[in-house]
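REVIEWER CHECKLIST
Item 1: Sequence provided? yes
Item 2: Single chain? yes
Item 3: Sequence as submitted:
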Amino acid sequence: MEQVILSAGIDLGTTTSQVIFSRIKLENISYTAVPEIRIKEKEIIYKSKIYFTPMMEDNRIDIPALISILQKEYHLAGIKRQDISTGAVIITGETSRKENARQALQGLSAEAGDFVVAEAGPDLESVLAGFGSGAAAASRVWEGAVINFDIGGGTTNAAVFSNEEIQDSFALDIGGRLVRLDENGKITYISDRLMPLIKELSLPIEIGVKAELDKLKQLTDALAMVLLHICQGHELTAVEEKLFINHGIENRKYKRVMFSGGVAECIYDSSLDGDYVDIHGVNKYGDIGPLLGESIRQMFSQEDEIIVLEPREKIRATVIGAGSYSVRISGSTVIMDDGCVPLKNIPVLRLHHTEQEHEIQEEYKIKRRLYPQTQQIAISFAGKRAPEYSAVKAVAKVLADITRNEGDILLVIVEQDFAKALGMLLRQFARQHHIICLDRIHAAEGDYVDVGKSVSGIVPVAVKTLIFKS
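Item 4: Structure as written out by the authors:
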């Protein structure tokens, strides 16, 4: 039996905000009384215009203005709030650092519907954009890794994919709005995070001074060179290293690169070259975004060993993600703590390497950066069909060890039928945690889960998938 639902995706970014509406066709593929729903078709039916994210004078998010934009777009799309079954509200870039970011998320979610709400830190934003741009799908086609740079107003968020699996992620203070200009070309804002680089280059770029085109171009060329050196595996200078947010990366070479985000609109449009002959042509949006795009296009076009791939989406890469509910049932052979539920919108951290202790530790370390350390997560993995007790015990020990300094609840979801044994061992090795261990459920990277109270040993679980991640 098929069912058609409508979904909304809302992206609140540093520079721009936008809304999309999608039509999703679902079908029940289960041959038993327990439903198993999958997405059969997905189609974007409406894309809003790109809005500048409304901010107040004290540099906080203007929540009433955001809600007004949302209401306007619902009206223009001919869609009512009650027509929407599911969706996602994502806050990204520098906007996620604003002091009222959480209130903005909750306000938008309350206005739009019962949605997945995600305050996307730099690493998680990197992954969302990489799925939305098509970089993850491209990595399934090409041998070797594909790196996606999502360049917005405040940050550049990078994700590395291989065979459609996330390999690494990081973020940089590189963006189009980090230097802003008024209509006369006078500089009105310079991000503090760019000042060390500006000083190292000895550039006369100061607030209140009319910008010189060649000096701005030297700055954007230097920023583009950082991205190029990352792809080439070159070591960065100490000043360039300071552009990383939270953590850096290992030096590796990437032969295939993709760009998304607002600046990508300029990177792939070579017809704009003639617009940059003077400062007024550059100052189209009141910032250095177009010039940064030109610098990146020129820099990468000169490199024969690096192939620049065309993205599926550019400025809309992050917003192409809307939640879809898929209700699953975890059976009676589980470990459950009803005092900890209901749990809602818990992000899934998917482990693929669960054979060796060091592999689990390394993969978990990399992927845990996608979420704030204080945030509750669900650890998901497949596991063997009939594992030996010693293997289950080894996994339990390492899971207890890597989550030792985290929150009260250790939530583990496995696909194979051994949650009872694993959960009992986790109770032994992770006594500081409340243990919930469920099985026979597939939860992938980028999914969110809801866990309800058990009824006669049966635990209802809703898996929410970002439908356009592939």
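Item 5: Key structural point noted by reviewer: The chain is about 30% helix and 25% strand.
Item 6: Recommendation: ____
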